[in-house]
Amino acid sequence: MRRWGLAILLLTAFVACNKPDRVDQLLSQMTLEEKCGQLTCPIGFTMYGKEGDSLWLADDFIGMMDTLPLGSCWAVLRADPWSQKTVETGLHPRESARMLNMMQHYAVENTRLGIPLLFCEETPHGHMAIGTTVFPTGIAQASTWDPELLEQMGEVMGREIRLQGAHVGFGPVLDIARDPRWSRVEETMGEDPYLSGVLGAAVVKGMQKHVVATLKHLAAYGVPQGGHNAATADVGPNRLKHDYLPSFEKAVKEAHAGAVMTAYNTIDGVPCTANRWLIEELLRQSWGFKGVVFADLNAVNALYATHHVAADPAEAAAMALKAGVDIDLGGYNYGGFLKEALQRGLVTETDIDRAVRHVLQLKYDLGLFYNPYVDEELAENGVGTPENIAVAKRVALESILLLENDGILPFDESIKKVAVIGPNADHMYAQLGDYTAPQDPDRIVTMREGIVEKGRAVVTDDLRSADAIILVVGGSSARDFKTSYEDTGAAIVEEQPSEMDCGEGYDRSTLRLLGGQEALMQQVYALGKPVVTVYICGRPMDMNLASEKSNALLLMWYPGMEGGLALAVILWGEYNPSGKLPISIPRSVGQIPVYYSQPVTGDYVEESAKPLYPFGYGLSYSQFEYWELEVKGDEVSVMVTNVGPYDGDEVVQLYAQEETPGMVLSSMQLVAFRRIHLKKGETQQVSFTVPEGFRCKSISK
């Protein structure tokens, strides 16, 4: 039976109330089941059917809406091997808008109170859906050291998901990554809390011009023991506050992030999803967070099934709710057992009302009670546009790192014929990273394709006749339909061959290249030809061989859909490389952790304790001279001159010593940076203010 008349009546009354009263009035009309439904966010890609041009609501969706009903859905538009959605079976932008409108109409017209749905989508480096703009992954974004550009990127991502009908983007990932064996380094912004905070806040500001951004993952998720995904974080309270929380704090206080997601791991034995101090006392009370807290997918159930701190699912639901988790992503515990937890006295209805109030307030702030629908034509014309793709190319260009160069780059007119080889030279999915939807090949430019299109030399397969060899190696987070997956969507490492060596679930015990790549490199270097080695990867790799043998060494991470074009214009000097490392590149696994700010007491017997390439490092085709450094109190200034033959960008970095009596927390700390553009011969003065509690240590390029 359709109940649209009652729904519209209640909706009209809700909108007419004064703002402070609107949420409470609606809350007072809700049953316990309806409240539990608002806190439930199940997987959404099973909620619809598609055949040709026909779309319909699945029985699962209708059944849930008629019994609970739901407050939100996650990843309705997601497409990947885990969801089993392909370019053909998944939803394209116009279909996405149509489907979310259909679901929204059902929620408003066919439920007792007509409360609109909240749609949440993955946006770590673009919306994880068919036909959207694919940006470089987080670690590449951070290599730009360009907050203004990342704000533009965030705005594109937010606008694209909003045009399709969604309201919450899951990202950015602000975990501080200090163990490159961990499978999710590619999603992060590196090892430094200040850099991650500045860049993360910029992404949030951009996204929240259109949708709510979700900070992931609170907290210390990026330093798991042994590099194992979701393993415990062995950090004390001082180190936690100093290193692993500031990036989140900055994004909350300065960018006003509207949502936060808890991490799977434990800290000092306490699961983050049940950590009341972390969520209620620190996030809400100390930082003043006003938004919604999500548990990561199935993280509430993990309190019972994995961590074993709860006796059963009802107790797990109670622990998470009492700790401050508002929405159960996956929905198993809140949707199925929160009512039982109330009946057993494990929670109160006041606890439930508090979380429901947060969810309803977010929906009000997003304007969903006024107009929950979107224009399908705008979605078709506004997603994956040339203008949006141009931003992706800019991020790719600024993220490319030049680590070695004997002068071969940029290529000059003597390079008339090049060979482009290696496992990642023409592999579309290898350059896109994890959390990427299936792609139409016509939308992605591989390394070889970019060089054919934009390069100024003939591309040959004959290495011996080539004037230079471009050797593209590294790793891949490309999921396939043969891979098995956890309930959380993480890939499972199996004996069967897979191209993956990175991406969620693919932790490493070494950092060596897989699949005989080092043997290939040795053979290529032995030819005596000029070789430019290019790494496409998601984590710091063992680069010792390439560092020693290559004429030039480039690191692109996972550069996104425009990676091939970005490489070509770098190689031929149409763009001067300017990326700086957001994470240190170790010489060996034995150095881990090797982040720049740790106090180092001495070298190892076998090798230096210093990384192969340090945090903040990155070469240019030009040279920048620093002079006339002045320190007056807390004001620091320096003159920077481009003394090289090319116009280019430089990132001026200020490091300081933190004055923490009685504690040794870092040897030095990045406290400010500025990206500047200088024409050849141009000079610019760069000034900084040293934050309170620090004394100037150095200015670095």
Structural overview:
This protein is an alpha/beta fold and 701 residues long. Helix content is 32%, strand content 18%. The chain is built from 21 helices and 24 strands. The strands form six sheets. The protein has an eight-stranded parallel sheet with strand order 1-12-11-8-7-6-5-4. A six-stranded mixed sheet has the order 13-18-17-16-14-15, with helices on both faces. Strand 16, helix 19 and strand 17 form a beta-alpha-beta unit. The longest helix is centred in the N-terminal third of the chain and has 18 residues. The chain starts with a helix and ends with a strand. The N terminus is likely disordered.
The residue-averaged pLDDT reads 94
Q: Would you count the extended β strands for me?
A: 24
* Model regions low in confidence, pLDDT < 50 over at least 5 residues: 1-17
- Percent range of helical residues: 25-40%
| Order of the strands making up the biggest sheet | 1-12-11-8-7-6-5-4
Shape: globular
For the largest beta-sheet, the strand count, sense and barrel status come to:
8 strands, parallel
Distance between the termini: 68 Å
Q: Report the sheet-strand fraction.
A: 15-25%
State the assembly state of the protein chains.
single chain
Radius of gyration: 26 Å
Q: Which structural class fits the helix and strand makeup?
A: alpha/beta
Q: Enumerate how many helices there are, as a single number.
A: 21
